[in-house]
């Protein structure tokens, strides 16, 4: 294919057959919570486990308490299609209460950049946007895997997360 750019993959960077394609997954959710509360909920690494589908057997391995800030490293363990995976991300950007970005340091992706943004949507409500830029290693085999199951798996994971966020926030708001 040679040099050039491929729309929707890696804008502004030359494309070649050797470079992995960059894919994008976005999810937006409106929650009945002020921006500060939504950010605090998402920014608490211990909330990752209940927000992750049980079929991933996800565990945060980083010792508690976890202080979230730019430079924080987070270690996880999970199983995907019965394959054990160790994953480490780094909080690259930490801008309370508006956004934070985590990037993969070690793990299954050639690129993983997850941007979380929080925008006020009227009094006491927030629009949360998850934007994930990712690419799969292994060249053409990775692209086949992305089309066959990675894209679908990520959609299921983020759909689950949206439902789990709503469920967790309802539970937190309910009188005990």
Structural class: alpha+beta
Would you report the number of β strands? Answer: 7
Pattern of helices and strands? EHEEEEEEH
Unreliable spans are: 1-16
Task: Give the helix/strand layout.
Blueprint: E1 23-31, H1 35-42, E2 59-60, E3 73-80, E4 83-95, E5 99-106, E6 111-120, E7 126-135, H2 139-173
Antiparallel strand pairs: 1-7, 2-3, 3-4, 4-5, 5-6, 6-7
In short:
This protein has 176 residues and is an alpha+beta fold.
Description:
- The chain has 176 residues and is an alpha+beta fold.
- It has one domain: START domain (Alpha-D-Glucose-1,6-Bisphosphate, Chain A, domain 4), CATH 3.30.530.20.
- The chain is 24% helix and 34% strand.
- The protein is built from 2 helices and 7 strands; from the N terminus they run βαββββββα.
- The chain has a 7-stranded antiparallel sheet with strand order 1-7-6-5-4-3-2, with helices on one face.
- Strand 3 (73-80) and strand 4 form a beta hairpin.
- The longest helix has 35 residues, at 139-173.
- It is globular.
- The N and C termini lie far apart (61 Å).
- The model is unreliable at 1-16 (pLDDT under 50).
Keyphrases for this structure?
176 residues; alpha+beta; Alpha-D-Glucose-1,6-Bisphosphate, Chain A, domain 4; seven-stranded antiparallel sheet; globular; disordered N terminus
